[in-house]
Every structure is written in structure tokens, then in C-alpha cells.
Design brief:
Distance between the termini: 38 Å
Number of domains: 2
Strand content: 5-15%
Order of helices and strands: HEHEEHHEEHHEHH
Strand order of the largest sheet: 3-2-1-4-5-6
CATH class of the largest domain: Alpha Beta
CATH architecture of the largest domain: 3-Layer(aba) Sandwich
Helix content: 40-55%
Number of helices: 8
Length: 254
């Protein structure tokens, strides 16, 4: 319970209002199944509060491998809270001068208005919960595929072209195995675009018995060499809200 409260507190001060929450899952077999499931579970646990605070209009979920540009995704429309306004009660002329009756009518109207707003919020919460559960199920349903390789560079280049307010959350081991990772910096996307990588260990890392700290440090160094605007954290840290709040390496360098 304390962990949830801390996430809400951090998110409450974030100036994040994206039109799209875009979740990208590395579906290659280079990530151990257990690590991938753990990362998805970590994201799923925080998804309800992330959605409430980011207020996206669309949640997009997709899986990528050797060609992120051609990876079909699934869009989920996020319901908006109905904007309700309550008209002032019409006071009959014959009781306009009777203050007690007039005040009673106003109180009843205000109470009815509050009840109407409460019902609208309740309907919205139910609809929002249904969407979040559908997104969570979609993430868990993506199978691991035997892609030829992982094109992290192509994914970064694709993200860099986004021109509408979007928060990208990517679960990956960040290991470029397609040879497409550019040696020069990839252009930073629009200021309203935020990117967070949740880093998992790879099968190779586990085979070589690398610690999570070493795996993360190597992944971070590789990605930040070409895209210092990407926010990164190990999958086990589990504070996506805090990660989105942190300044990027590119911002720190200015």
C-alpha cells in the first residue's frame, strides 16, 4: 500500500499529459521468459495509476523484433470523464420571497448535482478499469517469437519521428543484434515525447552470469551513446513514475 501511495504522490506533481501511451514489448527470444514476464507484471501493477495521471486518449500496445516499423499494434481508446454541468434551480415566483423554501430548493438541486457527478465518476472508473484490464491482458498474451534479431536502433529512429504528445514505455534487453544501431546520435524527438526503457537481462547475460547491475550498465551505455534522451531503469526498480520525472542525460548535458 505504501508503494502505491508513493507512486501517486510522485505522479501528482508531474507535468505529463500525453495523448498516447505507447507500450512496446521486445518479443525476441534473447530475453528469458521469466524476465520478460516479470517486467510486464511490474508495468501492469503500475498501469492503473499511470493511466489516471498521464490521462492518455489512446493506449497502444505492440511487440517488436527485427522490424519495429512493421510491428502491428493494438489501440485501446481510454474513456473520458463526462463533463457535467448543473443548471441552477428555477425558483417559482410565488416562493421567491420565502427564503427558507428558496434555500431548500437550492440545497436539493445541489445534492442532485453532486449525486449526478458521483454516478458519472463511478461509470468512468468502471469503464477505465475495463480498458486497463484489457491492456494488461494484451501484454500478457503476446508470445515470444523467434525474430531474426532485435532492431533497437530502428525502434529509436521510429520513436524519434513522433510529433504528437506520447509517452513510450519499452520493455527490452536493449541488445542490438540486427546491426542497425547508428553510431551517431539519433535526433531527439518532440519535447512532448517521453521515452522510458525498462531493461531486462538477456539470455546471454544469464549464460555469462552477469549481475543485473552490469547488464543494466552495459545496456544504458549502449543506448545513451546514440540516444541520451531515453530514460532507463532496470526492470526490478519498479518506479516508472519516478523515472519519467527524472531529467534525461541529454538535458543534464545542456
Amino acid at each position: 500500500m505504501k508503494a502505491v501511495l508513493s507512486i501517486v504522490t510522485i505522479l501528482a506533481v508531474l507535468p505529463l499529459r500525453g495523448q498516447i501511451l505507447d507500450i512496446r514489448l521486445d518479443g525476441t527470444s534473447s530475453i528469458p521468459h521469466e524476465a520478460r514476464s516479470f517486467a510486464i507484471t511490474t508495468l501492469n501493477q503500475q498501469l492503473p495509476e499511470l493511466v489516471r495521471m498521464l490521462k492518455p486518449k489512446i493506449i497502444r500496445v505492440s511487440q517488436f523484433g527485427n522490424d519495429p516499423w512493421m510491428s502491428p499494434g493494438k489501440d485501446f481508446a481510454v474513456p473520458a470523464l463526462d463533463a457535467l454541468t448543473c443548471a441552477s434551480p428555477r425558483i417559482p415566483a410565488e416562493i421567491e420571497s420565502i427564503q427558507s423554501l428558496k434555500e431548500a430548493m437550492i440545497r436539493r438541486a445541489e445534492e442532485a448535482c453532486r449525486e449526478s457527478h458521483a454516478r458519472a465518476r463511478q461509470r468512468h472508473e468502471v469503464a477505465l478499469s475495463n480498458v486497463v484490464m484489457a491492456v494488461q491482458a494484451a501484454m500478457l498474451a503476446f508470445p515470444t517469437r523467434n525474430y531474426q534479431c532485435t532492431a533497437v536502433g530502428d525502434l529509436l529512429a521510429l520513436i524519434a519521428m513522433a510529433h504528437e504528445p506520447t509517452t513510450f514505455i519499452v520493455i527490452t534487453d536493449a541488445q542490438e543484434t540486427c546491426g542497425h544501431l547508428a553510431r551517431q546520435n539519433i535526433t531527439q524527438p518532440h519535447p512532448d515525447v517521453r521515452v522510458a526503457f525498462l531493461i531486462t537481462p538477456s539470455v546471454q547475460d544469464l549464460t555469462q552470469r552477469k549481475s543485473m547491475a552490469i547488464s543494466f550498465a552495459e545496456a544504458k551505455r549502449t543506448v545513451h551513446t546514440v540516444a541520451p534522451w531515453v530514460r532507463m531503469q532496470p526492470m526490478s526498480v519498479g518506479n516508472i513514475a519516478g523515472l519519467l520525472q527524472e531529467p534525461t542525460l541529454a538535458a543534464q548535458a545542456k
